[in-house]
Amino acid sequence: MNRTQLAGVRTLLDEDLDASALSLDEAVTLPPEMYTDADFFAFEKDAIFTKEWICVGRQEQIPNPGDYFSFTVADEPLVVVRDDQGVIRAMSAVCQHRGMVITDPGELEQQEWSAPVCERAGNCGRQLRCPYHFWVYDLTGQLVGAPEMGRTKDFDRSAIRLPRLAVEVWNGFVFVNFDLDAAPLAPRLALADDYLANWQMGEMEAASLGRVDGLPWNWKVMLENIIEIYHADRLHLPIHELAPASLMVSTPFDDQDAMVISRTGTVRDDYSFNASMGALFPVIDTLTPEDRSMAYFGIAPPTLGIGTSSDSLLYVLVVPRAADRIDLLYGTLFPKGYKKLRRFAEIEELASTGMVALTRQDVAANKSVQRGLRSQFAPRGRLSWQEEPINHFNRWLITRYRRHMAALG
After folding, report:
1. Average per-residue pLDDT for the chain
2. In the prediction, which pLDDT does 198 show?
3. What are the φ and ψ backbone dihedral angles of 294, each rounded to 5 degrees?
4. DSSP letters along 254-270, please?
5. Do 236 and 355 touch, CB atoms closer than 8 A?
6. β-sheet bridge partners, residue 262
7. Which of helix, strand or coil describes residue 39?
8. Which of 84, 187, 277, 316 has the largest count of CB atoms under 10 Å?
9. Sign of the dihedral defined by the CA atoms of residues 278, 223, 56, 355, in that order
10. CA-to-CA distance for 45 and 43, rounded, in angstroms?
11. Nearest-5° Cα angle at 149, 144 to 153
12. Cβ count near 306 (within 10 Å)
């Protein structure tokens, strides 16, 4: 960022940000410009996305050596691969020769010429090869082949590798961090482990992964919507009457926690968010009676969102592209063996109808919120007690905004 841009961000951070970090009964929402300003989004790339652990997918996406998938966050193209020893590695996908993204194809049909980022997945064998000039990297990122470089003075192939990221797997979710010396993630997820342990997410497997690109709202709007219970049985009538806002339970939070969690009781046991309000698959047999009557929603900023049912777990990955643009990846996790159940596909489709209805409503609300936040009359509104997770998320953000600004001097 240049000095002018940074000065604008500093001014924004000085706009009574303390008012959004107060206790829930006193706090107001963040300044609207933090959701709409391109310079502030550029600041967030450094303050949040290059400093925090970023969830990029699930380990079962790459079960075998050579399996890989690409993931672009904060304009950084990444590749996540399982190496010959079964270790999950994350690296920059930018070839260290001329900058082509090595997971991109070497040929595009005309209808794809102006298309947005398209991520790739597959099995690359034992090497990653850039399509442009056939520079070849092994599965650890080391350059092992570079045609016709013998005449280049002092060219040392062994000194060239794809920049690495730190990797940590939590309950099957793959997290990466641009800081190789970042503090471990797992201790900051201890509270989430306590609440969600009986779902045994690390042993679950995903059904098909869906994707929607170019949704026109800020990444924070999306994460707020996932954890905020206040709208649940208002915007989402009648399906969310299953877990009404009036049954929300206050959840502890520390600014250093890596997940913001909201909880609400359900009006029946063995719940699921579909027209019947009940589980359509077998109830997960490790759940306690309390688990079977308590819905959990959580975010591990800046990308992961999760929500529980008695027979499954929904997750989303929020991938920011601009201040007012995100891509969304989503999937459902089931205990192992469920995908082999008779008529699994038909039941899954039936179970998803409720989520489709909720999603249509959330899309309408999120799109409209972003439009309203651009208005000169956009508020810094007060919060209901049922919006406690928003207060927690704001505190999480403000801590990191100020830490990065202090580091910039």
Report:
1. 95
2. 98
3. -140, 120
4. -TT-S-EEEEEE-SSSS
5. no
6. 297
7. helix
8. 316
9. positive
10. 5
11. 115
12. 25
Note whether 214 and 325 are within 8 A (CB).
yes
Check: CB of residue 61 under 8 Å from CB of residue 76: no
In a 3-state reduction of DSSP, which class is residue 220? helix
Q: How far apart are CA 104 and CA 200, in angstroms?
A: 35
Give per-residue pLDDT as tens, 11-37.
Answer: 888 878 999 999 999 999 999 999 999
Task: Kindly tell me the burial class for residue 265, based on how many C-beta atoms sit within 10 Å of its own C-beta (0-12, 13-18, 19 or more).
Answer: middle
The 10s digit of each residue's pLDDT in 130-143 is: 999 999 999 999 99
Q: Give residue 4's pLDDT.
A: 81
* pTM (whole model) above 0.70: yes
* pLDDT surpassing 80 at residue 242: yes
Give the span between the Cα atoms of 161 and 147, in whole angstroms.
16
65 cis-preceded (ω within 30 degrees of 0):
no
Burial of 196 (0-12, 13-18, 19+ CB in 10 A): buried
What is the Cα–Cα distance from 64 to 21, expressed in whole angstroms?
Answer: 45
- Convert the pLDDT of each residue in 253-266 to its tens digit: 998 999 999 999 99
List the structure tokens of 396.
């999480």
Rounded Cα gap, residues 65 and 139, in angstroms: 9
pLDDT tens track for 55-100: 999 999 999 999 999 999 989 999 999 999 999 999 999 999 999 9
**Residue 256 to residue 396: CA distance in whole angstroms:** 7
Distance separating alpha carbons of residues 287 and 251, to the nearest angstrom? 20
| Token digits of residue 331 | 């999937």
Q: What token pair was written down for 315?
A: 């997750």
Length of the chain equals: 409
| Token pair in block for residue 303 | 């990308």
First to last CA, the chain: 14
* Angle, CA 100 vertex, CA 97 and CA 103 arms, to 5°: 120
**Phi, psi at residue 101, to the nearest 5°?**
-80, 120
Specify which residues 78 forms β-bridges with. 71, 92
Taking the CA atoms of 60, 66, 72 and 73 in sequence, report the sign of the dihedral they define: positive
Instruction: Indicate the helix (H) or strand (E) that contains 72.
Output: strand 67-73
